[in-house]
Design goal:
Distance between the termini: 35 Å
Order of helices and strands: HHHHHHHHHEE
Strand content: 5-15%
Number of strands: 2
Helix content: over 70%
Radius of gyration: 27 Å
Oligomer: single chain
Shape: elongated
Number of helices: 9
Strand order of the largest sheet: 1-2
Length: about 250
């Protein structure tokens, strides 16, 4: 009878702790308000850019405009610009240089590096999959990997990263980053490596990848924090003539 009593109380204690743990998690979650979210306001630009990029693959007028732009470039610009190869990573590198110079970024080195790597993974995966699926010929007829522009996606990933880390300091950091990124996209068209819609879609993918990376990092970090704040474990034991349950709670 005594053993049964202990066992029953052990089960009651177990489920009580589990319920309490759930209540704590719910309470923390309700009180916590995420800083990063996707909304119509902050996604309309990248979504429109991506949408235009896909429309340019099929819409006759947009395809004709691509041809007109290429014709103008070939007729009036007789040199190549290497900015797209040398400066596509400039915005993201600027975050680290500026932080080292004493103007601190919003996140520490580890957190912002995790965000940057996450955005790179999403951006690169998306770009590579779309290149293989769409199979679009480049303007210079070199390969069938025109859509979307990887250089542009890389540059705008960095531009959004720079903006997120320093927008609370000054709006001009974002302006500078996006100016550099836009120049990369223009250079890809001038160098006859991409169509206009390739560049537009690459820009949208880059921006959206970084926004999503911040959201993922914030949520994952919050979940890890909750697990560390409270962790309860129930350990049953048997010692010769006695049964029992041990409770270990870590705050």
């Amino acid at each position: 009878m005594y053993r049964l009593f202990i066992t029953l109380w052990g089960l009651i204690l177990f489920f009580s702790c589990a319920s309490a743990q759930g209540d704590v998690d719910t309470l923390i979650t309700k009180e916590w308000q995420p800083k990063y979210n996707l909304s119509l306001k902050n996604t309309v630009i990248p979504v429109v850019l991506i949408g235009y990029g896909f429309a340019g693959l099929y819409h006759p007028q947009l395809k004709d405009w691509n041809l007109d732009v290429r014709s103008e470039v070939l007729d009036h610009i007789n040199r190549e610009y290497n900015a797209d190869d040398y400066f596509q990573c400039a915005p993201q590198l600027a975050v680290y240089f500026i932080d080292d110079a004493g103007i601190k970024a919003k996140h520490n080195f580890k957190d912002r590096t995790i965000v940057l790597l996450t955005s790179y993974i999403m951006m690169t995966t998306t770009v590579r999959v779309l290149k293989n699926v769409t199979h679009v010929m480049r303007p210079d007829s070199s390969t069938y990997t025109s859509f979307p522009s990887g250089h542009t996606a890389m540059a705008f990933t960095g531009a959004e990263f720079l903006w997120q880390e320093y927008k609370d300091k000054s709006v001009w950091y974002g302006v500078a980053g996006y100016t550099v990124a836009a120049s990369i996209g223009i250079a890809r068209v001038i160098n006859n490596r991409h169509w206009i819609n390739d560049v537009a879609s690459g820009a949208g993918i880059g921006i959206l990848s970084t926004k999503v990376a911040y959201i993922i990092h914030e949520r994952v970090k919050h979940k890890i924090k909750i697990k560390r704040e409270m962790d309860a474990m129930l350990i049953p034991y048997y010692n010769k003539d006695s049964w029992g349950v041990g409770l270990s709670v870590r705050f």
